[in-house]
Amino acid sequence: MPGVEVVITNVGTNISPTHHGALLFDTAAFAVPPDNAGRFGGCGANILEGPGLNVLNLGPLKEITMRETYKLKLEAVSSNVFNHPSFDIPDATLGSPTYGMVVHTRTGTAARDLSLTVRVAF
């Protein structure tokens, strides 16, 4: 609608794996501009936000002195302890069958990883 400002609120909040494929914003608020319109609309750049990142990394360390010169070090390092998925931003391609839906997880975020280390220092 010409002259009406579109305000989108609560984009990407409270997303969980059960919301996968649900629309995250009003897709009817956006349309392809007519040919020779001279501009692409009044929306700013990067107005869509994806769900937050929910990752907990943990690294406990225990050092045990066996004798004066011997020490035993036990270490457990874990990334993404609770194995939460990290969803990407919604698809913003007009006309796409997945327009307005979160269909991917973020690249660069891995599943849970655990490393156990035992060291003897003397």
Question: Would you kindly provide a brief summary of this structure?
Answer:
With 122 residues, the chain is mainly beta. It has one domain (1-122).
Walk me through what this model shows:
- This protein is an all-beta fold and 122 residues long.
- It is 0% helix and 19% strand.
- The protein contains no helices and 3 strands.
- It has a 3-stranded antiparallel β-sheet with strand order 1-2-3, with no helix packed on it.
- A hairpin with a 5-residue loop joins strand 1 (61-65) and strand 2 (71-79).
- The protein starts with 60 loop residues before the first strand and ends with a strand.
Task: Lay out the secondary structure.
Blueprint: E1 61-65, E2 71-79, E3 113-121
Which radius of gyration do the C-alpha atoms yield?
Answer: 24 Å
Order of helices and strands: EEE
Helix segment count?
0
In total, how many beta strands? 3
Main β-sheet, in a few words?
Answer: 3 strands, antiparallel
Helix content: under 10%
Beta-strand residue fraction: 15-25%
Shape type? rod-shaped
Q: Which stretches are poorly predicted, pLDDT < 50 over at least 5 residues?
A: 1-18
Q: Roughly what is the average pLDDT, rounded to an integer?
A: 74
List keywords for this structure.
122 residues, mainly beta, three-stranded antiparallel β-sheet, rod-shaped
